[in-house]
Amino acid sequence: MRQETSLFNKALAFVLCMFVMLSSINLSAITYAAEEATDYRTVSEAELVADNYESLSSGEKALLKSGYLASRTLTYPVPSGSEGLVSVNPGTRKITVAPYEKDGYVWNPVYASVVHGEEKDLVKLTDGEGTFSYEGAAYTVEVIYELHIAVDQATQEKLLNDPYLVARLLENGEELSRYESDFGAISNNVDALVSLTDGSLPLGAHINTEATVNAITDLAAQAEANDGFLDIENMLIDYGYAKSKLEYLIEHGSELKAEAAKIYEQIGYIYNDQGIATILEQLSDGNSTKKKVRVVLRSLNTLLSNLE
Fold it and tell me: pTM of the prediction?
């Protein structure tokens, strides 16, 4: 997890460059005037985090801006020309820029540029005021406004941690996919596991450990409900065919993780049940149940060894 607590309490800045054209300046003070107009734009909190943490990698920034991560979207007003917003006194060469406030958002002017020909003179604005040195009669003024949008610490921490978690999700999804054949060995031979519990074996041999019986019963029910597949197999099939594996894991990753944890616990009960080993010793080597259960146990060993 990234620790950047020194930045968490600051408002994240979203910067807009607003171009205001003033030309043909004469000796009287000129105020920029235009019809009142407001644009509305949107930005997600994830985008704000991506734009305000330079230490993030390009991949992490791309993920934050992808729209895949759950993130609140903010709609904010953009000044597009308000009467009296910018004024220039050509005699004193003083630029005065008012903040723009609407719908609870405040845009503060931070810089102005005086553009003349190919040259551009940057003027820092303090409390909305600044003075330029260009003495010509024709120029253009560009004003840069800055909008600060607060994103609370908990949200920033979550969004900074999400790319790491998604990377782990992808890693875990690919890891689980590598063992689809072992999950298949369980579902293909689940009938043999059931025979260890129902008394159908010679001499009525069966296991009676509650956790093991419950695990086998649940796996058998999954296979019956899913046309022969376990729940985790169906999820891995969907994952494999998903148009975007990333999108699938963001939406279903927690379900897949929970199912993997569940089946890991179940196969642990089965693999470590000494009653199964005792029953297999009693069965002849040619017994079909014995052969099938041994196939399952080999796959259980592979899964337990690699999916801890």
Answer: 0.55
Q: Report how far residue 190's alpha carbon sits from residue 102's, in angstroms, rounded to the nearest whole number.
A: 65
Q: Is the dihedral of CA 240, 242, 243, 246 positive or negative?
A: negative
To the nearest 10°, report the CA torsion of 145, 9, 72, 69: 110
Could you give the CA distance from residue 169 to residue 246 in angstroms, rounded to a whole number?
8
Counting residues of the chain whose pLDDT is more than 70, the rounded percentage is 84
Give the torsion through C-alpha atoms of 291, 296, 179, 249, to 10 deg: 140
Residues 6+ apart with CB under 8 A from 44: 67, 71, 72, 73, 74
pLDDT digits over 111-145, tens only?
A: 888 888 888 899 999 999 999 998 888 888 888 88
- Cβ neighbours of 167 (radius 10 Å): 14
171 vs 177: CA distance, rounded Å:
10
pLDDT score of 38:
58
What pLDDT score was predicted for residue 302? 93
| Contacts of residue 162, Cβ cutoff 8 Å, sequence gap at least 6 | 46, 63, 64, 69
Q: What share of the chain is helix, strand, coil (3-state, %, to 5)?
A: 45, 20, 30
Burial class (CB in 10 A: 0-12, 13-18, 19+), 141: buried
Give the span between the Cα atoms of 183 and 307, in whole angstroms.
12
Contact 134, 23 (CB under 8 A): no
Question: Which helix (H) or strand (E) is 158 found in, with range?
Answer: helix 153-177
> CA-CA distance, 203 to 286, in Å (whole number)?
17
